[in-house]
Design a protein that fits this description.
The protein has about 800 residues and is mainly β. It is about 5% helix and about 55% strand. It is globular.
Length: about 800
């Protein structure tokens, strides 16, 4: 049995015995007043659909204006001089307001409320904040998908789920691989954080998509721009944060069953989640828990004219979490496993140069559908064990401790050449990573609040395959950082700094054809950021950030020499590469009115020694013939504009539009950069119907995606780059609830590429050979049950 499976068993064993936790409930903000007898009101606020706690709910007593805001566990507490009977109002953006009359004549009372979601935005594409105040005061451009939006837009991958957000695009390898691109940057420049742990393995290439169960995502946040102060050099271009459901703090066993079906590749997907707050362990007491399992099976993808052979995939994921809350803080232990086997398009893997040229002119296609998987294929697993504890300290300070262990396995199998015989993969990579992070959130000092932190990383790889691509290596890194914020009446200022050190040892590799030297290298650098937001009026604000960041070259960028199986290309590294250094500036104008929302962002990112893959002549190897790409560096400039607007002219209609424009240039040659996304316009109109006895908030949405011809391409390239523009029409129907026989369902039906148009996207890695997917009818159904039911 392979070492990775042994490690997975150890991880599960560790998850069972390592829970020596204690953590706690934190109180809502206390506000005291005088004159009447002292009385107390407390309680918890939850979402009526998910039964999850709601943070940021405003709780106000009308008679005295005494108020509080619910904390991360959804709890609040009000203590003051109060009448015997009071009117209490509870409000939060995105939910229907609630007002209750409460009797406090006995000195106190408990009021628990479940708020009902109110559709006030086009789910899945709206940029939202937890409150109007946060939205208008934010310094950095951020896109957020709420739990409801994720449920309605959930795709086959995390990348596909978020691709309609402002500032985003995806690098696509068929339906099974979609890599987020943030403002023209991706992979090693965009950190993907799942349950608080930055995932390792994204840096190896565009086909290394986030190894995350799409069903496990509750909310998704995308930071558009550098996030290096908190997340290190891997966040030079942005951050994608995938957040799971909070663990329940009250109630018995509940959960939900989710079913998805995709017509294009005849995919069926299902996920079952169970959770509760009723588990009691010796010495730990009561704790919250959650377990989840998901599975997918898909066959060959279909374009408007043919099937793409060997593009199916299978996926099996599971996860478990448990945590406690105590008076001194809270602690959680999480384990997740992601596993997939995915086929790679046969036409991109050929035996010689003549076959490669023929494949580009006359691509390999099929007229028959199949679920069968053959070589070439990839088999990927990713296991994560994480522990996070927050200690509540005096004077509203806290100390946050986190540890993460990751085991990433990737086996790649060829369909021709010397490496096809036997069970040993043509190329294999096992990446083991330990990370630790400590953050101290200090108590407010006048208008100042902030965070001080340290982080550490240890990483190494094993290469059990037959072929060479990168050498084995060991990496150690550490960082110290500080982020401070000053908040005044209308002005918010943020300043941050970080120092990182990284030591890397690449071990010597010798073979008859390929020789990679022994190399030890240390890198160190500073990052800094300055941000400001100013509230012009009650509905308008302006914000700007200026940041300097750096990123050392990865092992693959310096020492690659071989076939990168997933991308079907031969890659050659450059050992002389030096760290990238970036200066980024952006400016954002925001508006938030009663029926409208607008955000306009402009940015410029100047990167010295920008590392990229430059196409070269095809190379013939014993594994076949492949396009060649060589790592190179230049000085680059990326500029862009993002415009997002929403208008609700009447309660039953919501209009949305988003424009993304990115330009990347080589500052030395003034030529466009490779792999910049084409200009994109997304528009939609959603009509809400009246709720009835069975239906709650039914809706119909018509949307369109218009992509401009990509003429911003390098003037000389070895391979033909399709650059034609295209337009797609999408249709969707759904409701926030459908009740049949006392059972609550959340259904939706969507049709993508309604008119089955043939097109090729500039960021698709199969664009040299075949068209993108054709029409896809997507059915989603969620069934809450038990304590999760309203």
């Amino acid at each position: 049995m392979r070492r990775s499976r042994q490690i997975s068993r150890r991880v599960l064993a560790a998850a069972a015995i390592a829970i020596v936790l204690a953590a706690g409930r934190s109180q809502g903000q206390d506000i005291r007043q005088g004159a009447l007898p002292r009385r107390e009101l407390s309680g918890a606020v939850t979402d009526s659909a998910s039964r999850q706690p709601l943070e940021g709910v405003s709780v106000v007593i009308a008679e005295t204006r005494l108020g509080a805001v619910t904390d991360s566990s959804g709890r609040y507490r009000l203590i003051g001089s109060l009448p015997a009977v009071v009117s209490v109002s509870l409000r939060r953006i995105g939910y229907l307001p609630v007002t209750r009359r409460i009797d406090l004549s006995r000195g106190g009372a408990v009021l628990d409320v479940a708020l009902v979601s109110q559709p006030a935005a086009i789910a899945g594409v709206t940029v939202r904040a937890d409150s109007a105040r946060q939205f208008l005061r934010a310094e950095q451009a951020t896109s957020v998908m709420t739990a409801e939006a994720v449920q309605q837009r959930r795709g086959q991958t995390i990348g596909e789920t978020i691709k309609a957000l402002p500032g985003l695009a995806v690098i696509q390898y068929g339906p099974s691989i979609a890599k987020p691109v943030v403002r023209g940057l991706h992979s090693q420049r965009v950190a993907t954080v799942s349950a608080g742990v930055p995932l390792e393995g994204q840096q190896w290439g565009g086909e290394h998509a986030p190894e995350i169960d799409a069903f496990a995502a509750n909310e998704i946040e995308v930071i558009r721009g550098p996030g290096t102060i908190l997340y290190g050099s891997g966040a030079l271009g942005g951050v994608v944060r995938v957040m799971p459901r909070p663990l329940p703090v009250t109630g018995g066993i509940g959960g939900e069953l989710t079913l998805n079906a995709f017509s294009n590749n005849r995919q069926g997907a299902a996920s079952l989640l169970l959770e509760g707050a009723n588990l009691t362990l010796p010495a730990l007491g009561a704790l919250g828990w959650r377990v989840q399992g998901s599975a997918r099976r898909a066959g060959d993808a279909r374009t408007p004219g043919y099937f793409l052979p060997n593009t199916g995939f299978r996926e099996l994921d599971y996860s478990a979490a448990m945590g406690v809350r105590r008076s001194w803080g809270r602690s959680e232990l999480n384990y997740s496993h992601f596993g997939t086997r995915l086929g790679l398009y046969l036409g991109a893997h050929v035996g010689n140069l003549d076959d490669l040229n023929r494949a580009m002119l006359n691509p390999l296609t099929s007229t028959a559908f199949t679920y069968s998987l053959a070589t070439p294929d990839q088999r990927v697993t990713h296991d994560v064990l994480s522990w996070r504890t927050t200690l509540e300290l005096p004077r509203a300070s806290s100390l946050e401790l986190s540890y993460g262990f990751q085991d990433n396995n990737r086996d790649e199998f060829d369909n021709h050449g010397f490496a096809t015989a036997g069970s040993r993969p043509a190329f294999g990579l096992e990446l083991l990573t330990h990370s630790i992070d400590v953050q101290y959130h200090h108590a407010p000092l006048g208008p100042f609040s902030g965070t001080l932190g340290v982080s550490g990383l240890r990483q190494g790889n094993l290469s059990p395959g037959r072929s060479f691509l990168i050498p084995q290596y060991r990496l150690y890194g550490g960082g110290v950082f500080a982020l401070e914020q000053m908040e005044l009446a209308r002005l918010t200022l943020t300043v941050g700094g970080r120092y990182d050190y990284r030591w890397q040892h690449a071990y010597q590799y010798g073979a008859p054809v390929i020789v990679s030297p022994d190399d030890q290298r240390a890198y160190a650098g500073l990052s800094g950021s300055l941000g400001a937001s100013y509230k012009l009026t009650e509905t308008w604000s302006i914000a700007s950030t200026l940041g300097e960041a750096w990123r050392p070259p990865n092992v693959n960028e310096r020492f690659s020499q071989g076939v990168h199986h997933g991308t079907a290309q031969y890659e050659i590294g450059d050992s002389t590469l030096v760290p990238e250094r970036s200066i980024n500036a952006d400016l954002t104008l925001r508006h938030l009115g009663a029926r409208s929302r607008l955000e306009i962002s402009a940015f410029q990112n100047q990167i010295n020694d920008y590392i990229y893959l430059r196409p070269g002549d095809p190379i013939s190897t014993v594994r076949g013939a492949y396009p060649s790409y060589r790592y190179a560096h230049t000085d680059a400039r990326l500029r862009g504009v993002e415009v997002t607007g929403q208008l609700d002219p009447v309660a039953a209609l919501s209009l949305y539009a988003n424009i993304n424009v990115v330009r990347g240039f080589d500052r030395l040659t003034q030529d466009p950069l490779y792999d910049m996304p084409a200009d994109r316009l997304t528009v939609s109109a959603r009509v809400f119907g009246p709720s009835s006895g069975r239906w709650s908030s039914p809706y119909a949405e018509l949307g369109a995606t218009l992509v401009r011809r990509q003429d911003q391409v390098p003037p000389v390239t070895i391979y033909k780059l399709p650059t034609s523009g295209y337009g797609l029409l999408n249709l969707e129907f759904g409701a926030s609830a459908l009740v049949i026989g006392g059972v609550r369902y959340v259904p939706s039906l969507a049709v993508r590429n309604l008119f089955d148009r043939a097109y090729r996207d500039y960021l698709s890695r199969y664009r040299l050979f075949v068209d993108e997917q054709g029409r896809d009818v997507v059915f989603r159904l969620t069934v809450p049950f038990g304590a999760s039911r309203p």
